[in-house]
Amino acid sequence: MYRHRILIVDDDKLLQKSLFNILSEKYDATVVGSGEEALQYLARNNTDLVLLDIKLPGMDGVEVLKKIRDQGLEVSVIMMTAFEDVKTVITSMKMGAFDYLVKPLDIEELEVIVEKALENTQLRQEVKELRKQLAEFDLENIIGNSAGMKQALQLADKIARSYDTTALIEGETGTGKEVIAKVIHYRSARSRKPFISINCGAISKDLVESELFGYEKGAFTGSLPQGKKGKCEIADQGTLFLDEISELALSAQVKLLRFLEEREFYPVGATEKKKVDVRIIAATNKPLERCMRDGAFREDLYYRLNVAKIILPPLRERQADIIPFVDFFLGKFNEKFGKNFRGVSPEAERFLLNYRWEGNVREIKNTVERIVLLEEGERIERNHLSFLVPAQAAENAGSDAAPRLTAGGVDLVEINKSLVFKALEMTGGNKAEAAKLLGISRPTLVYRLNKYRSES
Ligand SMILES: Nc1ncnc2c1ncn2[C@@H]1O[C@H](COP(=O)(O)OP(=O)(O)OP(=O)(O)O)[C@@H](O)[C@H]1O
Ligand SMILES: [Mg+2]
Questions:
Q1: CATH number for the 5-133 domain, one of 3.40.50.300, 2.60.60.30, 2.60.40.60, 3.40.50.2300?
Q2: CATH number of the structural domain 139-313
Q3: Using CA positions, which residue lies closest to atom 16 of ligand 1?
Q4: Greatest pairwise CA separation for the chain in angstroms
Q5: Which of 132, 281, 306, 443 has its CA 20 to 30 A from that of 40?
Q6: Are the CB atoms for 169 and 181 separated by under 8 Å?
Q7: Whole-model pTM above 0.70?
Q8: Atom 13 (ligand 1): residue with closest C-alpha?
C-alpha cells in the first residue's frame, strides 16, 4: 500500500527524533534541520506533507513556505511554532499553510491534523491531475482540419452532451479512437469521475467476467481473499471504455449484453446484484459488421453498442490533417528535445501527403519525434524521411496500386520507386523475375535501383 511521504523540518534534535518515531509508524518520514535542506529535498522527492518549524536557523519557516508556494509544489504544509505568535501564524495561513501546531505538541492533535492535511494534499493532486487531463482534451490540443475529423469531433461533442448515450468508435489502428473516447468523457458531465479503460483483446477469456464485474470474497481459487471490484464498479458515474471490443469472447459478449440492458450485474460468486451508472464507449479497429457476418460478434450486442457511431477515417483519407499534425508534433518534440524545427520543405510535404500512413496518427507522431531527435535544422527535408521509403513503398504498390491524387499532385518518381521495391519484395529479391513482373529489362531495373539507392 502507498505510504504517504512526510518531511519534518526542525532544528531541535529531540523533537526531530520524537516526531520521526511517531510518524514513521504510519508514514514514510524524513527529517531535515534547515529550510535550505528542506527545499533541496522537496525539489527532488515527491512529498505529500511538510511539518515546518517557523523558527529555523538561516531561512525561517515563513520564507520556506513562500518558496514552496512559489514553486507550485502540490504539498500541504503544517507550521509548528514554540509560542503562539499570532501574527506569524496568520501570515503563514494566508500564504497557504494548511494548519499550525503549537509546541509542546499534543500527539493526538498532531495525528488528526496530519491525516486531514494528507487528505488535502490528495485533493490538490487530484485537481491538478484533472486540470491537466482536461487541458489535453481542449480543442487546441486536438487536431481536426479535415472534413472527416471535424465531423467526428462534432459528433463526439454531441454525445458528450448526452449523459448516457453509448458510443461505438471505429477506425484503423492509431487513428485516435482513444483520443475521441476521452474527448467524450472529459467534455461530459462525467468529467470529474473516472475514465476506466479495459482492453478486451488483452484479457483471457476466463477472466473477462471478473475483470468487468469483480468478484466476492473467495469466489474462486487464486482470488483475493477480500474480493475485488470490477471495472464497471470502479467506473461508477464515469465512463467505461471497452477497447478492441471485437476481441471479446462470445461467452463474455452475452454477459456484457445483459449488463448493457440492465446496468446491473452480479460480481462473480455474488448472490446480490449491483447497480452502476456508467457510460459505455466501445472501440474497434475491425468493422463490427464484418465480425458479425463471420459469426464472431453477436448481432444483439452490436445493436446495443451502435447507438451513436463515430468513424475515424484513416489518415491517408484526411490529408488536410497531415501537415497540421506534423506542425503540432513538431511543437511538442521541439520542446522535449530543445530543438527548433519550424516547418516542412515542399518536397518533404509532397512526400508526407502521399505516404500511406498505415500506422496513422501514431506513425506520424513517431516519425516527427524521430526526426526532431535525430536531425538538426529548422525544416523537415525530404532526406529526413528516407527511412519511411522501403516498407511503405511496397504497400503503395499493393493490391490497389492506383496512384493517389492529392493537393500536392502525384509523385511519379515515388510511384515508380515503390513499384520497383514491391516487385523485388514479391520475387524475394530476384532481379530478373522482378524485371519481368514490371515489364522492363533487367539492366533497366538495375539502373533504376542504383539510382534510387544513391538518392536516399
Ligand atoms: N486528433 C488528434 N489530435 C492530437 N493527437 C492525436 C489525435 N489523434 C490521435 N492522436 C495521437 O495519436 C496517438 C494514437 O491515438 P490513439 O491511441 O487514440 O489511437 P487508437 O485509434 O486508439 O489506436 P489503437 O487502435 O492502436 O489502440 C496518440 O498518441 C494520440 O495522442
Ligand atoms: Mg487505442
A1: 3.40.50.2300
A2: 3.40.50.300
A3: 176
A4: 97
A5: 132
A6: yes
A7: no
A8: 362
